[in-house]
Amino acid sequence: MKIRTLGRHFRTGGQNVIRNGWMTFASTSAIAISLFVLGVFLLLAMNVDHLAKQIERQVEILVYLDLNIPSYERVQVQEAINKMSGVKKVTYISKDEGLEILSQKFGEDGDKLLESFKGENNPLNESLTVEVKDPTTVGKIATKIEKLNEGRTVPPIFKVNYGQGTVEKLFQVTKLMRNIGFVIAVGLLIAGFFLIANTIKITILARRKEIEIMKLVGATNGFIRWPFFVEGLILGLVGSFIPSLLLLIGYNQLLKNSSEEISLLIGRLLPINPYLFQIIGILMMIGVFVGIWGSTISIRKHLRV
Amino acid sequence: MIEMQEVWKTYSDGTPVLQNINVRIEKNEFVYIVGPSGAGKSTFMKLMYREERPTKGQIFVNNFNIGKLKQRKIPILRRNIGVIFQDYRLLSKLTVQENVAFAMEVIEASQRSIKKRVPEVLELVGLRDKINSFPSQLSGGEQQRVAIARAIVNNPSVIIADEPTGNLDPETSWEIMKILDEIHDRGATIIMATHNREIVNTLRKRVIAIENGRIVRDTHRGEYGYED
Fold first, then answer.
1. Which domains does chain A have, with CATH numbers?
2. Is A136 within 8 Å of A129 (Cβ atoms)?
3. What angle do CA B213, B217, B220 make, to 5 degrees?
4. Full-prediction pTM beyond 0.90?
5. Which positions in chain B have a beta carbon within 8 angstroms of at least one beta carbon in chain A?
6. Cα separation of B24 and B60, whole Å?
7. Who among A209, A210, A218 is closest to B75 (CB)?
8. Rounded-to-10 torsion of CA A211, A213, A214, A219
9. How many CB pairs under 8 A join A and B?
10. What ipTM, to 2 d.p.?
């Protein structure tokens, strides 16, 4: 193929987009709508996943030590836990610190309420906060920590607490949410794919006569196919650009208006960079692929004239 | 030069359309193909530009062996033949100028030669002032003239016209015939299927009559020979 012919194909492809105004409108809106729905959902799913991760990360093990534990023994326990695989960090919380945390939980009146427990009267245990690398292993590690008491006449550990029961349920819920999200995303993708492919097919079906005429004039299949390829490319680009722009504007507004109220309730929303840009990248890729695929596949059967 | 040797065409359901066709058309001949509807005229025409394949027998068009022509060589054959139809078959989204230029773009002609040649042929068919119109804005006769311009723009040696005046009134039909005769004078071979008695009997040329899939008459400077 000569270079000038390639230029001709791009010109003709662009011209087709403009002259087939109504058909162009139909296919670009099909692409734009499907991708918009998919984009909104992906954004939602990513944020839910992010939220789940945040919640999961808050899961930790509280090890309450025996009331009368000597400090060397406390250090021994701390080191033993630190050595366990899967443990990220062990933090020691003294009696005073424990009281401080408790009083914060009561809010403004905390100091007043707990005043009488300060100093010598502090009834709290010393404790260790254990953070783990993988939140789902929290149960196993807690059991291991409990075993440190075995064979000791005076057990150094009073109680191990990680929200038994609740944590397992939380993981079940987050896992279910992720699975459902994945299924819906795939479903939307397939539905969108068929919608777009069908719309493009119809637009090209309408041009079946044109293709026959081109063949009668002596055009090769490649010569006929190229402008359709270009047209599909343009449809895909325009069709994915519109929802990308809408998502960008909409999400930006959402971040601006709700950062205070929502972040307190459910944690921060994901920032635009890189997450929304990733989604836009995905949408663009799908749009271009579907545009080209739809237009070139659909003319294939008409080319056998 | 076009030659058919013992050509048979049977459709897949077994109906014979053409039976044992033997014909030879020399360079620069002008031939009418006449006969009742359904006799096989259109199939006869389609075989020459390889829209149909012969079931049996051999067809040669300009040194192309049609029966053995590979699928991807069909476009090359068609670039050597100009085809004109009763229903014009123009590209509705393209202007007059672009429709004619399309045939030149197909053979990858340069923009310069396209810009020079297209107005020339449009001049020849008398449509110089309508170059930017779309087919839907033209009359039937004008559309057919565009189709003729497209058919001849690459100077093919053979023009195949399947009832080119079928949709036109007598006066317009004669304008089209004048153009075809002019193209013939310039050296092209013309094969034209027609139902137009007046044209055949006035502009006398070789007449081949097809009935029930067979050639029943082949006369130089012949007559139409049917009552309408």
1. 3-55+169-303 (no CATH), 60-161 (3.30.70.3040)
2. no
3. 135
4. no
5. 49, 51, 72, 74-79, 83, 89-93, 102-103, 105-108, 110-111, 150
6. 9
7. A218
8. 120
9. 54
10. 0.91
